[in-house]
Structure formats: structure tokens, C-alpha cells
Design brief:
heterotrimer, A alpha/beta, B mainly beta, C alpha+beta, A: alpha/beta, Rossmann fold, 5-stranded parallel β-sheet, 5 helices, 22% strand, globular, B: mainly beta, OB fold (Dihydrolipoamide Acetyltransferase, E2P), 5-stranded mixed β-sheet
Chain lengths: 120, 171, 718
């Protein structure tokens, strides 16, 4: 079963995402911000990363940069969770190495569809 | 020492309508209380006196961790008080008021029976005089030619507490 | 599939309220002009989270309101907007509005839509106020629901598309996979893909991490170019993409961008004017996503609202019924209970086959039991402890609002916020604290002009401090304001017959009079701190918590109010005393000393009151049996003991027959089933199961002093 690393500083979002993904059979590791995510990424085998952009300590863009620098994450799909008003963020994210994005607010069905598409 | 008296259901009347009452003896008269309000029946145990309370409030006891006040009904009804004996019993009741509910105990001479008295069978009580206010009495019932004075527990015990407060303020 | 996400609403509400608290705290810290970028970022993130979450959970009114707020904050953090005081104030008001909205939603109550709309309009006005063309355009663009990356090329119906897809070398490093993209494309319709191997190098020069493949794809589907583009949305900048409409079966060469624009006119003319059918669109495409979102959003909202309607209608009580506990604390408790169970079963076993030679083991077991029970007790109590910051946190906002309302300059300092106290005590001390703080702000700290006249700095300082001392928590409220006016208090007290005209009282004692009922020296009834009747209520509330409040003040220098509270409401360390046949408990914290009564030190004053001379002081002797009307075993003072206690700021001596042991007792309420009794603060159950009454020292001391005063007055009259 693929493992997904879900990063968001909002507990309700993390809960919703984790619940949705686990329900679909994925293994989920969750993290509260970039620092937490990076630490967990270094010791886990992750098949896909979902990350919010605005987080304390280390934001999503920085996290993406850091992840891409890790040998295990050179080609891992990393999706940003971004709001409509984050047009600039998408470009920034892509420059940092993001694979793509999911626009907030999204519902569980949209989330799963996108992830299934990416993971095949 | 706690002694749970077996409640005899044989004396239940045939008609299912009406309410069940636990009756007890007090100075030769038989009184009844709604069985649904009876939490338990205990033997008389030592009580801790509370200062500045009317004589009918004997004090408080420890009922499995809760502090419960005990009212001596004889004293409350201004009847002659007798020394407590082996048959002296404390009936622990759930008393309701607009503020919620409380647990209180009443000291009676002895517990009697459980009877079923229908609402129609409950007659209006005449004026008993000063001591037992008609507020305290829900009505009179008749079972096997006996007169049962059915008490309004809420009124009786809540007023006892309020009276105690009032008495204190007067002092 | 439908997943009910309303189960996460509670978490969302909780974190949103926390977020609002953070926003408020940071906003209060923003000094207009000196905006700390990290601070603004924090506020932005909080608003952003609330907006995102509320959108996700279908609370669209909250999302819409927060959107404008978030836009303002975004501009501020980018430096495109100045942080002005009016803006900060408006945002503080917005925080209030959001709190109200979320509270209403949580309790399934109506939202004050007028208020929301009003503040929303003010925010919009601020936003548009100094928006130049660029910003205006940005606002307009954000207002637009549809987000389009590529210009919409309206193409009428077409047989399909020819796509030349050439990923750039680094495409893999974005985590994208060309195969996946092509697969997604195939969801639009049947495709024929031919790989172009022309740029694949020799094997030994091959870098597997780089993409050197390209594809020519024919998609037979009646879809718009935009839909095709959307499939490649993520890799827009990571590939060369050429899309042309297919109208004939002839496979064309890979067209260069210039060639495509040349080809366009011809293609367009050939295209028919059929309206494109509504195809089911893959969820990835942003436009379709938008539509899907809109459609999805409604059912989610309905479900969410229904859920909140059906779910708990618990009113937002001032005292919350739940507490957050760190899981480590819970684990520690579980361990302790485990040990307790082991000890208990060991004792059980011991008891089954007990012989006297096992007494030592029994004693050891009992000691173990006591140790485990005590540990468990301490740890459980700890769970109810929270730092006082939860209570202090309301004050920055309060001081901010009040100081502007009163036109005073006040700086709030807080220390010891980490000091812990029982959750219930903290909830109940909130109101008294607020009253004392308001009192300091209203009557204590002077206006800037007066302060300057007095040679004080313009800005007054209010200092809140908390620390542990003994078994208590001490809270100090200090201001450098006008202090108490001793003479005025004295006059007022005489006026209200609280003291006699000729009574000699120390300054301290006069200051204490402000806590007397009905006392107020405020010249004007201000609605800030009320008529001043609050002080006696404050004192009473604190007393009900088992605590005391004192004041120390110096005119024109300032005042300090000190509150002392027990750390917990449920347990107290007590001294058992015997009086007649009854056992009473005197709280250890109130006992100063106990002594044998010396006949020479007893004096009787007019009316029968007795005083005991202890060193330099005269203490009233409290004969409990008189106050409690019980028959004493022993009426001779010299045969008994005097327990010197302090209550209500006064000292007295309680006459008892005997001192029994000391122990920790669990306080049981008398009021639950009976009522409050004067002189008692509760009851407890002793080891033998009997009930012992706990003396209310402060109450008794006051009672006895009043008795003495009454006797004195009687004697004076006689």
C-alpha cells in the first residue's frame, strides 16, 4: 500500500485528509509543519507528499526544496495544497520542485481522484 | 449497618393503574411515599450533627461518599420523639426542586409495605392542623381498610431545608 | 463515495478559536508603523487556515468573510499595504465577528448577518480605499471564481487534437511522469501515441534521471483545447507543448509554434459551429474542478449544517466540561493504576490466608498502597492544573480596549503566566480578576495629563504577576496609579457606619474597608467598573474559593491587590480537633499555632466576650459550642487548648478540647444535598466512615468579631 506524507498545520485538515486516505487503503504519515515533515521523511518510505503551503517554522515551499534535496525524494510526487489566491505560490512551488497542486477547498472525492491519478 | 428490607409485592392490587407507594409507620399512623423516589432503606446509623439547625434536622450521614442530611419526621411533624431502636429506619429519598434534585433521608419508626394506589383512589386530605400542613400531603388512600397518608416528598423536605435557612436568618 | 467530513468540525472549531486568539494577541502587539513581519505572517496564516478550513467544511459565510481579511493581511505581509492603527482596530473587530460567527455555527444558532455584513463592508472599503490600478486588478482577478492559466481559445467542435509533447530534460525531477500524463489524456478519449526517440543518446551516455523522450499523440475526442491543456497544467513550464486541432486523417509533422499560428486561421475556418457537448471532465482540470467544487460545496454545506443542527446543542457555558491532557500524563496515570492494582491484589492474597507472622508483610503492603495512592492522587490533581496564562490572556485585549475608551495610556506587563492552578479555580477567578484590573484602569491609573502633573511618566503600568507560595497560588495586580485615598475612604466609611468617628484604625485597616459591602468612593458611576459594589463581591468570590484578597497602597504611588488561592478546591490539609463528642477539621493553612491556655492571659470584657493575650495581641476566643450550640464536655478554658487561627485578615483563637491527628481530607459539599451552613466550609468523610465538619475559619473569625462588637455596643448602651 502506498504511503502518503500529509503536511498541514491545521488539525482539522490533517484529520480529514488522513481519514479520507486511510479509508481508501493508503498508509498515512502526518506532520504539522515543514520541520516535522522533513524529520519524518528522512526515516520513512514515502510514495507521495501532500503539503499545505502556509505553515509556521517551515512553509510548504521550503519543505519542497528540502525534500528534493534528499536522495529518496528526487522523483517523489509532491503535491501542494493551495488556495485560489495562491497563483504566485504555484509558480514558486514549481520552481522549488513541486509536482503539482490541489486547489483548496477540496472535498475528499477530489483529493482521492487526484492522488489515484498520480500514483497510477 | 445497612439493611435493605425486602419489598413485598404480594400486596399489589390487581389493577395495574396508579402508582406504587412505600408505606411506613410513624407514631401509629401509616404514611406513604412514591416508590420511585425511594433510593434505599437503611438502618439507623450515627449521624454528624450540624450546628445551628432546627431539631428536626438530625445531621448528616455519609452515604457512599455523599453527604446526606437526615430529617426526623416525628420532630418535623411536632410529634413526640422516641429513642431510636432496632426497627428505626432511614428511608433515603430523591427530592426534586426547581434547582435540581437532592438526596435526603427521613427517620421513621418502621417500614411497612408497598401498595398500589390509583390516582382516583387518592382522596383529598382534610386539614390536619398546624403540624402537618396540607401542602405536605398529596392525599389519603385506603388499602385493606387502612388509611394511608400519602406525602408530597418534594414539598415536605424542600420546605424543611428552606425553613432551616429562614430560621437561621432570623437568629 | 461520500465521506462525511463533518466529524472533523469540532476540531476545526477548536483550532479556529485558538487561531483567533493568536490573531488577537498578535494584532495587539502590532504597533502601527513598526509592524513585525513575522507577526503579520502569523496573523495571515491564522486567517488563511480559517478560510481554508471553513471552505473545506462548507461554512461558506465564514470563508467569504475571512477572504477579505486574508487579502488585507496578504497585502500587508508583502509590504503592499501599510499597517495602520485603524486597520489593526478593524481587524480586531473582525476577529470578534469571526468568534461570534463560529460560536453561533457551533451552537446551531443564528448568525448576526447584519453585523457580519457591516464589518465585511468596512473591510472591503479599506481594501479598495487605496487600491491602485494594479491592486484593483488583483482584487478583481481574485474575485473571479474561474482561474484560467491559458487564454481560453474558443474552438468549436472538432474531431480531436494533435499533441506534440516533449518533456524537458528535468521533468522527472518534478515528480511528474509522462506516462501518467498521457494516461490522463487518454481519459478524454481514445489516443494514439507515438514515441519520438530522436533525442535519445547512446546507452553509455544515457542519464536515467533525465527525460529524453517525446511523443506525438493523436486524441480523438470532442473536447476543447483548454481541456487538453489542463491535462498538462502541472508540467506547463517543464515541457514543450504544441496542440493543434485535428480535422483530417492526415498525420501532420510536428508543428513548430510559429507554424501552428499560421495553421490556425485555416483550421478555424474549417471548424463547425457546433456547441461542444458537455463531457464528463477529469477532476484535475482547474476549470472543471471549479465547477465540480461549486456543485460539491453545496451538499457538503447542507450536510455540515444538518450535522451541526442534530449534534450537541450544548450552550457555550462559561465553565467548559472538558480538559486537554497531554498523553504522557495519561500514560503515567495508567502506569500508576497498574501498580495500585498489583499492590491491591497482593494485599488481597495476604488477607486470604492471614497469620500473625505475616504482619510485617501486611504493613509493608499497606505502606506501598499508601505510596501508590498518594502518587496517583498527586498526578490526577496535576491533570486539572492549567497555566494561569489561559486566564491572563484576555487582558491584553481588555487593557487595549479600555485604555482607548478611557483615553489613558496604559502598558500591561504580565509575569508568571506559566504558574499552574486548578482549572475550576481558574475559571472562577476570572471575573474577580477582570474586576480588579478594570478597577485599576478606571480608578487607579490617572489620565496622561494628571500623571505628567505628578511628575510620573505618561504611560501607566499595570502589572499582573502569579507565583506559587506554600500550597497556594498568589496573584498580584499592581498599578502605579493614584493609590487609595485613605482620608476619603475613612470619611465614606464613617458615613456608612462601617466605623465610628473616633475609631483609630491603621492605614491598612482603612484600606481593607474598600471590600466592605456597599462601599464606593467613585464620584461618577462609570460603566467601566460599575458602581464599585464589585469589591465586596470580589472578596466573597475569592473567599468561596478558599482564598483571600488584600490590598497595599500608597497615595499617588500605586496599589497592589494580592489574591491568595489554594491550589486545589477538592482537598485540604486538616487538623482534626475534638470538641465534646464531635470531631471538627481546621484547615492547616489557617492555623498559626496551638497552645495550652494560661488562665492569666484570659480577660473577659464587657458583655461576656473573652480575649486571650498572646504576646502583644489580644485575640478573641471562639467558643465553638456557643456558636454551634452544642453541649461541651468541658467548659473550663484551662482544660482545653487554643488553636490560634487567621481568617479574613484577623486572628482569633478557637477553643477545643483536644487535638487529634493531621490528615489530608477530601472536601465534600454540604450544599449539594443540604445547604450552606454558617461557620462551616464543608464536610469530609473520615477513615472510619463518619462525617466530620470542616470549619470555615474566616467565617468564624468574622462571626466572633461581630459578636464582640455587638456586645461592646450593647455594653456601651447599657
Amino acid at each position: 500500500m502506498p504511503t502518503i506524507l500529509a503536511v498541514d498545520d491545521s488539525a482539522s485538515m490533517r484529520q480529514m485528509v488522513t481519514f479520507t486516505l486511510k479509508g481508501a487503503g493508503f498508509t498515512v504519515i502526518d506532520a504539522v509543519d515543514g520541520v516535522d515533515a522533513l524529520a519524518k521523511a528522512k526515516t520513512a518510505k514515502v510514495d507521495l507528499v501532500l503539503t499545505d503551503v502556509n505553515m509556521p517554522r517551515m512553509d510548504g515551499i521550503s519543505l519542497i526544496k528540502e525534500l528534493r534535496a534528499l536522495p529518496n525524494f528526487k522523483f517523489t510526487p509532491i503535491l501542494m495544497l493551495t488556495t485560489e489566491s495562491g497563483t504566485g505560490k504555484k509558480t514558486e512551488g514549481k520552481s522549488a520542485g513541486a509536482t503539482g497542486w490541489i486547489v483548496k477547498p477540496f472535498n475528499p472525492a477530489q483529493l482521492l481522484a487526484t492522488i489515484k491519478k498520480v500514483l497510477g | 449497618m445497612s439493611m435493605i428490607q425486602g419489598l413485598d409485592n404480594n400486596s399489589l392490587a390487581e389493577n395495574v393503574e396508579g402508582n406504587q407507594y412505600l408505606t411506613f409507620l410513624l407514631a401509629g399512623e401509616e404514611y406513604g411515599v412514591d416508590i420511585l423516589r425511594v433510593q434505599e432503606i437503611k438502618g439507623w446509623d450515627n449521624v454528624t450533627m450540624i450546628p445551628n439547625t432546627p431539631d428536626y434536622i438530625k445531621g448528616v450521614i455519609n452515604l457512599r461518599g455523599t453527604i446526606v442530611p437526615i430529617v426526623d419526621l416525628r420532630a418535623r411533624f411536632s410529634l413526640e420523639t422516641i429513642p431510636y431502636g432496632i426497627t428505626t429506619v432511614v428511608i433515603v429519598l430523591r427530592v426534586n426542586s426547581e434547582n435540581g434534585s437532592r438526596i435526603m433521608g427521613i427517620v421513621v419508626d418502621a417500614v411497612s409495605e408497598v401498595y398500589n394506589i390509583s390516582d382516583e383512589a387518592l382522596k383529598q386530605a382534610p386539614d390536619f392542623g398546624q403540624a402537618i400542613s396540607t401542602d405536605f400531603v398529596m392525599g389519603l388512600g385506603t388499602v385493606d381498610d387502612k388509611m394511608i397518608i400519602v406525602l408530597d416528598i418534594d414539598h415536605l423536605l424542600n420546605s424543611s431545608v428552606l425553613k432551616a435557612i429562614a430560621d437561621q436568618e432570623v437568629k | 463515495m461520500s465521506i462525511d467530513i463533518s466529524q472533523f468540525l469540532d476540531t476545526f472549531y477548536e483550532e479556529s478559536f485558538e487561531g483567533l486568539d493568536t490573531m488577537e494577541a498578535e494584532l495587539l502587539g502590532l504597533n502601527a508603523g513598526e509592524a513585525d513581519p513575522e507577526s503579520i505572517n502569523t496573523i495571515f496564516r491564522a486567517a488563511h487556515s480559517i478560510k481554508g478550513g471553513s471552505g473545506t467544511f462548507g461554512l461558506m459565510n465564514v470563508a467569504d468573510f475571512t477572504h477579505v481579511l486574508e487579502t488585507l493581511l496578504d497585502e500587508m505581509r508583502d509590504g503592499r499595504r501599510d499597517v495602520t492603527q485603524p486597520a489593526v482596530d478593524l481587524m480586531l473587530t473582525s476577529v470578534d465577528v469571526l468568534r461570534e460567527m463560529l460560536t453561533a455555527l457551533r451552537n446551531s444558532e443564528d448568525i448576526d448577518t447584519a453585523r457580519v455584513a457591516d464589518v465585511h463592508d468596512q473591510l472591503e472599503a479599506l481594501l479598495k480605499g487605496d487600491a491602485d490600478a494594479a491592486e484593483g486588478a488583483a482584487v478583481v482577478a481574485e474575485g473571479a471564481a474561474v482561474e484560467v492559466d491559458t487564454p481560453e481559445v474558443v474552438k468549436s467542435s472538432t474531431r480531436g487534437w494533435k499533441i506534440a509533447f516533449k518533456p524537458l530534460a528535468h521533468l522527472f525531477k518534478t515528480g511528474n511522469d509522462p506516462v501518467r500524463i498521457i494516461k490522463e489524456l487518454s481519459e478524454l478519449g481514445p489516443i494514439k501515441a507515438v514515441a519520438d526517440l530522436s533525442t535519445v543518446p547512446e546507452f553509455d551516455l544515457l542519464d536515467p534521471e533525465e527525460c529524453c523522450l517525446a511523443w506525438d499523440i493523436e486524441l480523438e475526442a470532442d473536447v476543447t483545447e483548454e481541456q487538453v491543456n489542463d491535462v498538462f497544467a502541472w508540467v506547463d513550464e517543464d515541457c514543450d507543448l504544441v496542440i493543434e486541432a485535428m480535422v483530417s486523417d492526415v498525420v501532420e509533422e510536428i508543428a513548430m509554434p510559429e507554424a501552428e499560428s499560421a495553421a490556425l486561421p485555416t483550421l478555424e475556418t474549417v471548424a463547425e459551429a457546433d456547441l461542444p457537448k458537455d463531457e464528463s471532465m477529469p477532476d484535475a482540470a482547474p476549470v472543471s474542478e471549479e465547477q465540480a467544487k461549486v456543485e460539491q460545496a453545496k451538499p457538503v454545506e447542507v450536510v455540515a449544517n444538518k450535522q451541526s443542527g442534530v449534534a450537541a446543542k450544548k450552550p457555550q457555558a462559561a465553565e467548559s466540561g472538558s480538559i486537554r491532557v497531554g498523553i504522557d500524563k495519561v500514560d503515567a496515570l495508567i502506569n500508576m493504576v497498574g501498580e495500585l492494582v498489583i499492590t491491591q491484589s497482593m494485599l488481597n492474597q495476604l488477607g486470604e490466608d492471614f497469620t500473625m507472622d505475616r504482619v510485617q508483610r501486611l504493613q509493608d503492603g499497606l505502606t506501598e498502597l499508601e505510596r501508590h495512592t498518594r502518587e496517583l492522587q498527586e498526578n490526577v490533581m496535576q491533570i486539572r492544573m492549567l497555566p494561569i496564562s489561559f486566564s491572563f490572556n484576555r487582558f491584553p485585549r481588555l487593557v487595549h480596549d479600555l485604555s482607548s475608551k478611557l483615553n489613558k495610556k496604559i502598558e500591561l506587563k504580565m509575569s508568571g503566566e506559566n504558574t499552574e492552578l486548578d482549572k475550576t479555580v481558574m475559571e472562577k477567578i476570572g471575573d474577580p480578576l477582570v474586576h480588579l484590573v478594570r478597577n485599576s484602569l478606571d480608578h487607579g491609573i490617572e489620565s496622561p495629563e494628571i500623571r505628567l502633573e505628578k511628575g510620573k511618566p505618561e504611560t501607566g503600568i499595570l502589572h499582573l504577576n502569579a507565583y506559587h507560595q506554600g500550597g497556594n497560588i498568589v496573584i498580584e495586580i499592581t498599578d502605579d496609579g493614584a493609590g487609595l485615598n485613605t482620608d476619603r475612604i475613612r470619611e465614606k466609611a464613617i458615613e456608612k457606619n462601617l466605623i465610628g468617628k473616633n475609631d483609630l484604625l491603621s492605614e491598612e485597616k482603612i484600606h481593607e474597608l474598600i471590600f466592605a459591602p456597599g462601599f464606593s468612593t467613585a464620584n461618577v458611576v462609570s460603566d467601566v467598573s460599575g458602581r464599585g459594589v464589585g469589591m465586596d463581591v470580589v472578596k466573597r468570590n475569592i473567599r468561596d474559593l478558599g482564598g483571600v484578597v488584600e490590598v497595599k497602597s500608597k497615595q499617588d504611588v500605586g496599589s497592589t491587590f494580592t489574591i491568595r488561592l489554594p491550589l486545589t478546591l477538592a482537598i485540604l490539609d486538616g487538623q482534626l480537633v475534638r470538641l465534646g463528642d464531635e470531631t471538627y477539621i481546621v484547615p492547616l493553612v489557617s492555623i498559626i499555632e496551638s497552645l495550652q491556655i494560661k488562665a492569666e492571659s484570659v480577660s473577659t470584657i464587657a458583655g461576656g466576650a473573652e480575649l486571650y493575650r498572646l504576646r502583644e495581641e489580644y485575640l478573641p476566643i471562639i467558643r465553638l459550642h456557643e456558636i454551634f450550640e452544642i453541649t461541651p464536655v468541658n467548659t473550663e478554658l484551662v482544660n482545653g487548648l487554643l488553636v490560634v487561627v487567621e481568617g479574613d485578615g484577623q486572628q482569633a483563637g478557637i477553643f477545643v478540647d483536644d487535638l487529634l491527628g493531621q490528615q489530608q481530607v477530601v472536601i465534600k459539599s454540604l450544599e449539594t444535598n443540604y445547604k450552606k451552613v454558617e461557620g462551616l466550609s464543608g464536610a469530609t468523610i473520615l477513615g472510619d466512615g463518619t462525617v466530620a465538619l470542616i470549619l470555615d475559619v474566616a467565617g468564624l473569625v468574622t462571626l466572633s468579631r461581630e459578636r464582640i462588637k455587638a456586645l461592646k455596643n450593647q455594653a456601651a448602651v447599657a
